[in-house]
Specification:
This protein has 104 residues and is mainly alpha-helical. It is 84% helix and 0% strand. The chain is flat and about 90 Å long.
Length: 104
């Protein structure tokens, strides 16, 4: 009689523990790396337009005060900077293509 009660008590405790473990969510798999395409898309769609708008407001403010030479200089620097950024992006894709070509 005592043995049956002990087995029932242990069985009851074990079922409660299994139900508690069943409610615990499983861990998600670890991320494999950084989503660089998402980061680039975010910067290109959200950050770059804001920065260009700020530059435009600064240029318009300077031009309205008669500082045309400063506006032209700043505009030229901004255009050269954008050209460097575009060149770096182009080299990134060309380099990726060359690596895939060589190591495949």
């Amino acid at each position: 009689m005592i043995a049956t009660e002990s087995v029932e008590a242990v069985w009851s405790g074990a079922t409660h523990a299994l139900h508690a473990l069943a409610l615990v969510p499983l861990a998600e798999p670890a991320p494999k790396g950084i989503d660089t395409n998402g980061v680039v898309t975010f910067f290109a769609s959200k950050i770059a337009p804001i920065l260009l708008a700020v530059l435009g407001v600064i240029f318009i403010g300077r031009a309205s005060r008669g500082e045309i030479s400063k506006v032209l200089t700043s505009s030229a620097i901004a255009i050269v900077g954008l050209a460097f950024i575009a060149g770096a992006a182009t080299l990134f894709f060309v380099g990726d293509y060359l690596i895939n070509l060589i190591f495949e």
